[in-house]
Amino acid sequence: MAKEKTKNSNAYSLMSPRFWHGMRFPYWFGLLARNRFDVSWSRLHLALGVSFFSPWNDLLALFQHLGFGRAIDRTSLAGPPIFVLGHWRSGTTLLHEYLALDERFASPTTFQCFAPWHFLLTEELFTRFGGFLLPERRPMDNMKAGWSLPQEDEFALMNLGAPTPYLRILFPSHPIPHEGTLASSTFTADELEAWKRALDWFLRAVTYKVRKPLILKSPPHTGRLGILREMYPQAKFVHIVRDPRKVYPSTLKLWKTLDEIQSMQAPSDEKLIEEFVLRTLPNMYKSFEADRIGLSDSQLIELRYEDFVADPVSAMHRIYEQLELGSFDRVRDKISEKSKLERDYQTNRLELRGDEERRVMQAWSEYAKRYGYDG
User: Contacts for 133-140 with beta carbons within 8 Å, 24 or more apart?
Assistant: First the structure.
């Protein structure tokens, strides 16, 4: 076991579930073995918790497969999916929540992403009686948390065994796994097959339950646009960008918070996180810019976070018109009400030092120039 070197500022209670609790036992044990069981002593209770729950996931997965497996296999998507794209901390969560207000669409919930193997059996029970297990607010940005709220499908893919760099959160001191899956062209053949299989199954499983077109959000999908276009030729994409001087410190805080709450090790050297964040945006956006070529205006729309928060109603109206999502009037009042409720919401005030800002703006210069943040 690794020795704890840093005090754990865990924002969740010991009872709070982690996303790893949705893994099946063979996959979980394989991850432990590949990482040489390098668990910090202060995180041993987390590893034991996952080890306790994962066999139950195996059993429930069997029951779900027996009860719904054939039906899921026969299910087709109810309409072209809508993907929210953008780097971490660019406003993708906020945009996702606004889009999810339209009851004509549906999004994977936190519980579905937490327990993709058995949510068809267990979601109603957990959402009704298990609310106390989650904090009221997300520790990284103080946004509301809950089992039924829209969630990143990347967490579902991770629990299904798909290759994802999110596995770095488990063992943040080790080399980052599957970093190549942040860009369409750098997937290995095996990674691509496993990833596409997991995503397709999960979307069909969610569609089987909700019977509506899906709205999906996962920052890593930004660099996978080409793969998503191939899998879902009629898909729609909403891309949001934000000032790099805000994105960078907020993304650092995100990864540090996830490491503190979710990882099996003491938080890693901050320089490892800084280097990871600095290199991933250029890699993702090089792929995004290549993959977007040929997409029509009715399939891809782009907006700036600053414009969106200044006038969410107008921004959403533009999205509906350009992507041809149907009548905006049916959802205008909900969007207006949400914007009023969130008018006083304050984002984290994270500032960069002068040398940090120069480093970020140099590393992310192409992004800053393309989207008008280089002034």
Answer: 133/15, 133/16, 133/17, 134/16, 134/17, 134/110, 135/11, 135/12, 135/13, 135/16, 139/11, 139/12, 139/257, 139/261, 140/253, 140/254, 140/257, 140/258
Q: In sequence order, which residues have a C-beta less than 8 Å from that of residue 351 and are 6 or more positions away? A: 249
The residue among 155, 297, 171 whose CA lies nearest residue 238 is: 297
User: What radius of gyration, in Å, describes the C-alpha atoms of the chain?
Assistant: 20
Domain map (residue ranges) of the chain: 19-370
- Give the residue from 368, 86, 83, 360 showing the smallest Cα distance to 241: 86
Length of the chain: 375
Instruction: Evaluate whether 158 touches 19 at the Cβ level (below 8 Å).
Output: yes
Closest-CA residue to 159 (of 232, 57, 234): 57
**Phi then psi dihedrals of residue 214, to 5 deg:** -105, 145
Which three-class secondary structure state does DSSP give residue 237? strand
Fold of 19-370: Rossmann fold (3.40.50)
Task: State pLDDT tens for residues 112-143.
Answer: 999 999 999 999 887 775 544 455 544 444 45
User: Three-state DSSP class for 109?
Assistant: strand
Report the distance separating Cα 62 and Cα 58, nearest Å.
6
What integer pLDDT is reported at residue 136 of this predicted model? 54
Lowest mean pLDDT among 61-65, 105-109, 186-190, 270-274: 270-274
| Edge-to-edge strand list for the sheet holding 300-304 | 215-217, 82-85, 236-241, 300-304
> Computed from CA positions of residues 162, 164, 166, 167, in that sequence, does the dihedral angle turn out positive or negative?
positive
270 pLDDT band, cuts 50/70/90, is confident
Residue 259 is which amino acid? D
